[in-house]
Every structure is written in C-alpha cells, then in structure tokens.
C-alpha cells in the first residue's frame, strides 16, 4: 500500500526542483512561495478598477439581465487589456478576468482567446491556469485535438500542481470522448500514477474504471476500484479525520454504478443464453 505522507514529501521535493529549472513557481505547490502580485501603474489600476466596477454589477442578476451584464463586464475588461497592453502583467490580469466572465457568459471562443492572452502576457502567474481554461473552452467547442494539446501544455508548465493533475485527467477524458478508448485508458492510468492525494487518486481511478467498463474490461475496472479502496484505507490511517469525506468520495464514484450495471447485464445475458440452450436441448 502507498504511504501518502511519503508521496506528499516526494511531490514537494520535486516541485522545488522543477521551480529551480523553470523559474515558474506555482501557487498550488505547498513547497513553493505564493507569486507576488505585480506593482501596477496608476493608469493600470484605474483601468482595472473601472472594469471591476462593471463586473460588480453582475451580482444578484439572473437570466437575460445577467447575460447582458456579463457581456458588458467582459467587454470592459477586454478594453482595459487593450488600453494597458504596454504593461503586460496588468493586461494579463484584465485578460484573465475577461476570460472568466466570457466563460460564465457562455462565449467559449472569446473566453479561449482571453485565457491564452493572459497566459502569453504573464506566464509566471497565468501560464498554467490560462492554458487550462483555454483547453476547457476548446473542449466545449469540440476542438478535441487542440484541447488535447493545450491540456498537455498546461500540465507541462508545472507537473506538480493540482491544475496539472486536472489537465492530465482531462486528456484521458477527451481521448475517450473521441472514441480512442485504448489511448484514454493509457492516459488515465498515467493520471492515477501521478496523483499525490487521495482525492486525486479517487478522481483519476473513477474515470479510468469508467473507461474500462465502457471498453468491456470489467475485471480491470474492478481491480482499479479496489486500488482506490486500498489507497483510501491507507490515507485514513495517516489522516483519520478525513475518513468520512473520503468514504463519501468512494461511494459517489460513478464508475461503481457503471460497473454494477455492466456486471448485471452480463449476468442476465449469461442466464438468457443458458435458458435458450436448455430450450434447444
């Protein structure tokens, strides 16, 4: 069984090593310091404050009123990004805020563009989350090959973060949606191997087991789910206060229900075949 305390220590050590190589620390690695907010000029602060005021108007709205307010706020941040483009870190902040608003608005192509702009303008702060957001938008637009490449780029920015793990899981899920079941299983097995917390392991195994069930390999799916059970049992020894939360996470795994349905269907088919054979005899 895995010793989760040992895994977390190793992950933190790896994070430090990668930071030294890349010069791009992440706020999600416990071993790395938070990235400091950049010092902004008065002009940038004014532009961002005006856009922020428009974004505040979205609060409490619903339906068409909310959609209109989101559109206006996103455009306000877009304008701010253009006005202060000579100050890349400020423009990146505006672009990322615009992307989040366009995402809520449902304008996936505009959100994708703004996420990538933020990633390019300020790689230190936005490379990974900007690319991850862009990949999500590409996936929603069913630009699957592009989404795969962007998810992989996002994971590569800093492989030790929670966002990187999310990106790796999505690589497997996108491959499965494309009908590339064998590749999906390979990618999801890799995501299981890189999980550094029980929650990440549960998530990755849930999608792996689901892919295995879809591919008809019920025995392998059952083994994967047993691996999740074992990982949680080990984690609870280290963190007993997490017992209830982790058990609920195990119980809510959709792959368990998918496997049960597939097993029931297989059993019913076997019984039907046996009855037919007896009738013929």
Describe the protein in words.
This protein has 281 residues and is an all-alpha fold. Among the domains are: 101 residues, Alpha Horseshoe (Serine Threonine Protein Phosphatase 5, Tetratricopeptide repeat), CATH 1.25.40.10; 86 residues, Serine Threonine Protein Phosphatase 5, Tetratricopeptide repeat (Alpha Horseshoe). The protein is built from 13 helices and no strands. Helix 8 runs parallel beside helix 10.
Which class do the helix and strand fractions yield?
Answer: mainly alpha
- State the end-to-end distance: 50 Å
The whole-number mean of residue pLDDT values reads 87
Q: Tell me, what's the shape?
A: elongated
* Strand residue content: under 5%
Number of helices: 13
- Could you list the spans in which at least 5 consecutive residues all have pLDDT below 50? 1-33
The residue fraction in helices comes out at: over 70%
What composes the largest sheet? none
Which architecture of the domain at 44-144 per CATH?
Alpha Horseshoe
CATH class of the domain at 44-144: Mainly Alpha
